[in-house]
Design a protein that fits this description.
- By secondary structure, this protein is an all-alpha fold.
- It contains 5 helices and no strands.
- Helix 2 packs across helix 3 and helix 2 packs across helix 4.
- The longest helix has 30 residues.
- It is elongated and about 85 Å long.
């Protein structure tokens, strides 16, 4: 029997605190998916892949890696199509957005749920400076490559 009748009830939840204490540093999966709206799905798929690796989930990491490779291929092909045609293809943009939505529901949302159920908000966070600066650098590089391709095509 408890000594303090006014204390809140206590539940013996096995492993609840130990799992949160041993969580590896992760990028917030919701934020990674949100940043993908600005930086293409390449950004979010890479971070989700790295999160699954850190969590020791090899099968899910493999699936996330496939999403990453598919996103890279899609973006490169989209850039080449847009640069080659000299037009802003709305069909390409619609396809890219559809892939982003598909990845969110098939790839990102399960990680959001997994992290929330297993660790809540008590896990260590990875910093955002490095991935965001890398994404900005990649976008600048892509703009330079497309510009060079367009200029060479005009010559």
């Amino acid at each position: 029997m408890q000594d303090n009748h006014y204390a809140p009830p206590k539940a013996d939840v096995e492993g609840a605190l130990t799992e949160a204490a041993t969580a590896p540093p992760l990028w917030n999966p919701n934020a990674a998916a949100s940043w993908s709206l600005l930086f293409t799905p390449i950004f979010g798929t890479w971070l989700h892949w790295r999160n699954w690796v850190a969590l020791g989930e090899a099968e899910r990491a493999g699936t996330a890696r496939t999403w990453f490779i598919a996103s890279v291929v899609l973006v490169v092909v989209s850039i080449l199509i847009s640069a080659g045609s000299g037009q802003r293809g709305s069909g390409v943009r619609i396809l890219n957005f559809a892939v982003l939505i598909g990845w969110y529901y098939a790839g990102a949302k399960p990680q959001v749920k997994y992290v929330a159920e297993r660790f809540g908000d008590t896990y260590a966070r990875q910093g955002w400076a490095r991935p965001i600066l890398s994404a900005i650098g990649a976008i600048v590089a892509a703009i330079v490559v497309v510009t060079v391709l367009v200029v060479l095509r005009l010559l």
